[in-house]
């Protein structure tokens, strides 16, 4: 069972939210909208009822590790609801809502390392925002002036923060490394001397591991959680421990790290999120009243305004649990299945992905153990090999192969014969992804699904398919039972036929070549003939071209409305004889995931596509722009432009040559694909 309870109040899964591309690190309830941040550098705003994101925010350049809603005072000042975020890019960002969408209105800079904790501090004038960072400081911010009012220094590495109703600030630290242990994790209590000065009044060292989060507990004080597996309920004035909740020990005799904590005021429960893949519900007397198993480790948990709570997990999922709604059998079954699959994977031992990330066995002499007896795994002949450090001899002693090593595994809750590692460059460095593959599958089909899922360049299709074929060539199925069966004795299995990657056409075809390095120089040259752009416009184009060239960053980069407007100046005011650079920019903007959200008018494109004095290059590009309109919004393509009369008109123009005729085939294919999408939705706009 995924859930066990000893309380009359039982929480069950009510919603499962999937959409992030990385582990979920932060959750907040902003007036009924669940806002989440993750290690994919994105913030998603969810419609929980439909389990779908209603807005994606790409403002961050690194992991998003903290989110807090705006307090009532700042909602009044900013005339809007909103939230603040903290991330590993060292910045704090303020978002407010306008026309139904959240936009960034301020960026607070001052920390020198990642921001991992946020809280509001009440004071007699205007509440201040507290931020805790890996730079060892807590900062207090005035949002109106966007200035830092005070700094609380000298913490041991990462800092979690909490502003208490009595005006006291509580901070916790992750401690410092000493040999093979973390020591000196502390909680500090700070009292105000003046609005911009706080004095340290007490230091507590009662946790035996890094302090990960502090949360307010109404009418009592606050609670802290730690890597030592404990949750401590404390008094508000001095932090004295009132009650301790202790996570159970694992098979190694160690408790799971408690990385997140939330207080539920309606039911008066604490909820802990642990890397041991459990969320535990605690009464305030220290009794664990419910344990909810998850398929992967948990990073965070947050109370929702309606009494529910949400967990953020390493498997990139957000799960909402409720005691108010009827049990959802389908979601409960799905969660139980995912947990069971995770247990199967754990029993198999390290997957191919995990083994590949280990240091090579032949290079073990270059690594020094941190303490005598330390156990380290190395990669030896594509299996995990355990060694133990001997401080006396200064060498690694062989223990043996880690049992259960295999190539099978689970990706996004599904079990596969093989899990194949892939590395993709992102703005924050190399990101490790996984391809799940079952023997006998078409490598091209698997590769295409992987490309679609992660918004990769379609030109990688053959390369990824070949990589899958190479990695799966030596696959050996597991031997079940106690029979000693030779793999060579099994009948030969004919390989599955490889289907054409091009026909039949089941997805949108696009023109996505990004070789535009000299495009800005061409625009500048043409601008001397037809002066339309100023210096700031050219700077906008330069930034846009840089974004469009970096195709591997499309999932996290942005295109602004001002950049689109600059390109449209060229389309509107340049003659068809010189419009091809602008059309080429529009073509690539429509390949970018954000492009279709800003480009909605086809009039200028059609004008250049069918102008009699246009060069062939211009006609080609204009039609390619129409083709690229479809992938992100097929209904918009069909509803806003009727491509068939336009194409029909073009085929009767006397300048149409064979090359252009072949180019025209692509819009017909796209139109057919779009029509299929609409028919499946019960809409036919092609009558």
Automatic annotation (TrEMBL):
Transmembrane segments: none annotated. GO terms for biological process: proteasome-mediated ubiquitin-dependent protein catabolic process; ubiquitin recycling. It comes from the Eukaryota. The keyword Hydrolase does not apply. Signal peptide: none annotated. GO terms for molecular function: ubiquitin binding. InterPro entries: ARM-like, PFU, PFU_sf, PUL_dom, WD40/YVTN_repeat-like_dom_sf, WD40_PAC1, WD40_repeat_CS, WD40_repeat_dom_sf. It holds the Pfam family WD40. Its main location: cytoplasm. It is found in: Cytoplasm. GO terms for cellular component: cytoplasm; nucleus. Keywords: Cytoplasm, Repeat, WD repeat. WD repeats lie at residues 17-56, 108-151, 251-285. Residues 388-482 form the PFU domain. Residues 501-687 form the PUL domain. This is PFU domain-containing protein. The lineage of its organism: Eukaryota, Sar, Stramenopiles, Oomycota, Saprolegniomycetes.
């Amino acid at each position: 069972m995924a859930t066990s309870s000893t309380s009359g109040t039982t929480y069950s899964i009510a919603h499962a939210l999937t959409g992030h591309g990385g582990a979920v690190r932060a959750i907040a309830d902003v007036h009924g909208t669940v806002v989440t941040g993750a290690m994919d550098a994105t913030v998603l705003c969810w419609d929980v009822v439909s389990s779908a994101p209603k807005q994606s925010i790409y403002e961050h350049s690194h992991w998003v590790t903290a989110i807090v809603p705006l307090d009532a005072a700042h909602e009044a000042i900013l005339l809007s609801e909103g939230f603040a975020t903290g991330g590993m890019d060292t910045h704090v960002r303020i978002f407010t809502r306008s026309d139904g969408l959240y936009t960034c209105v301020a960026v607070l800079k001052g920390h020198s390392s990642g921001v991992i904790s946020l809280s509001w501090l009440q004071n007699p004038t205007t509440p201040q925002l507290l931020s805790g960072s890996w730079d060892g400081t807590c900062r207090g911010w005035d949002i109106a002036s966007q200035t830092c009012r005070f700094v609380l220094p000298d913490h041991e590495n990462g800092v979690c923060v909490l502003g208490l109703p009595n005006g006291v600030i509580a901070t916790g630290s992750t401690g410092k490394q000493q040999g093979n242990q973390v020591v000196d994790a502390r909680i500090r209590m700070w009292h105000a001397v003046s609005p911009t000065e706080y004095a340290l009044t007490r230091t507590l060292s009662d946790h035996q591991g890094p302090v990960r989060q502090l949360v307010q507990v109404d009418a009592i004080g606050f609670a802290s959680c730690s890597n030592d597996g404990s949750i401590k309920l404390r008094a508000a004035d001095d932090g004295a421990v009132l009650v301790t909740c202790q996570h159970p020990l694992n098979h190694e005799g160690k408790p799971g790290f408690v990385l997140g904590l939330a207080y539920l005021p309606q039911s008066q429960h604490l909820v802990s999120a642990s890397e041991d893949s459990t969320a535990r519900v605690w009464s305030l007397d220290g009794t664990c009243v419910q344990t909810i198993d998850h398929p992967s480790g948990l990073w965070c948990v947050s109370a929702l305004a309606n009494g529910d709570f949400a967990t953020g997990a390493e498997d990139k999922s957000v799960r909402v649990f409720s005691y108010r709604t009827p049990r959802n059998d389908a979601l409960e079954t799905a969660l139980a299945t995912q947990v069971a699959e995770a247990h199967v994977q754990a029993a198999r031992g390290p997957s191919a992905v995990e083994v590949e990330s280990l240091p090579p066995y032949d290079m073990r002499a270059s690594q020094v153990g941190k303490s005598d007896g330390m156990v380290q795994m190395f990669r030896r002949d594509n299996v995990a090999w355990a060694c133990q450090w001997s401080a006396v001899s200064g060498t690694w002693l062989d223990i043996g192969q880690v049992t259960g090593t295999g190539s099978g595994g689970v990706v996004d809750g599904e079990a596969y014969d093989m899990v194949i590692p892939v590395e993709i460059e992102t703005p924050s460095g190399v990101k490790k992804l996984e391809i799940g593959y079952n023997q006998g599958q078409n490598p091209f089909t698997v590769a295409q699904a992987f490309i679609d899922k992660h918004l990769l360049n379609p030109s990688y299709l053959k390369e990824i398919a070949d990589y899958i074929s190479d990695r799966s060539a030596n696959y050996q199925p597991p031997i079940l039972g106690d029979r000693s069966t030779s793999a060579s004795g099994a009948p030969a299995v004919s390989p599955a036929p490889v289907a054409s990657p091009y026909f039949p056409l089941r997805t949108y075809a696009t023109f996505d070549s990004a070789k535009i390095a000299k495009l800005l120089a061409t625009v500048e040259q043409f601008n001397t003939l037809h002066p339309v752009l100023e210096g700031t416009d050219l700077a906008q184009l330069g930034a846009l071209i840089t974004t469009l060239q970096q195709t591997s960053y499309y999932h996290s980069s942005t295109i602004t409305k001002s950049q689109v407007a600059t390109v449209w100046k060229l389309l509107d005011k340049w003659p068809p004889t010189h419009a091809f650079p602008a059309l080429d920019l529009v073509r690539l903007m429509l390949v970018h995931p954000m492009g279709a959200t800003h480009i909605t008018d086809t009039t200028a494109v059609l004008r250049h596509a069918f102008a009699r004095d246009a060069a062939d290059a211009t006609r080609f590009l204009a039609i390619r722009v129409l083709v690229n309109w479809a992938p992100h919004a097929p209904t918009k393509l069909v509803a806003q432009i009727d491509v068939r009369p336009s194409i029909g008109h073009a085929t009767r123009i006397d300048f149409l040559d064979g090359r252009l005729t072949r180019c025209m085939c692509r819009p017909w294919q796209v139109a057919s694909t779009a029509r299929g999408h609409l028919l499946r939705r019960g809409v036919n706009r092609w009558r």
